[in-house]
Fold this sequence. Notes:
Order of helices and strands: HEHEHHEHHEHE
Number of strands: 5
Radius of gyration: 18 Å
Oligomer: single chain
Shape: globular
Number of domains: 1
Structural class: alpha+beta
CATH topology: NADH Oxidase
Amino acid sequence: MANEFLTLAEKRRTIYTLSKESTVPDDKIREIVYEAVKHTPSSFNSQSARAVVLFGKHHDKLWEITTQVLKAIVPEDQFASTQKRMDGFRAAYGTILYFEDMAVIEELQAKFPTYQERFPTWSQQSSGMLQYVIWTALANEGLGASLQHYNPLIDEQVRAEWSLPETWELIAQMPFGKPTAPPGDKEFKPLEERVKIFT
Length: 199
């Protein structure tokens, strides 16, 4: 690898087997999220990203909410695998919720009408960068994580449970914790098929 950052990029993997343990204090996780939210770029410096960190009973409550929402729509004879997945997420140490503040996006759309159709896309791109920065930083601290998308199914319940603004749109959920097993092998398609370089 060319540098330390790329080494960390290789270290970041999707890990589902997580425990209710952490390799670092909660304050360190808060610091990672604060710094990532502060320094991750956004279009027009909109700073529209929002994050909610759930520890302990709050983390458990999120996956309880998600389980109940899914139970109402997944056929009973197929719910066992869904329950197993939910139990796996709940077994983690905590969860980070990623949001975009749509009030900020709408303000930019009104201010710069030429780009109004692009702002939602740029917002998603910025959110993706934030997710990646935090995920990689957690991996550097020995924490595993995965990225989940049960939005918009759980949006209303999440906003109500934690009294969040109506303008915050839920983008993703990231359960994290100490890994209990390493990630599996990953296959890579030939880079020559994915990258073109002209000199």
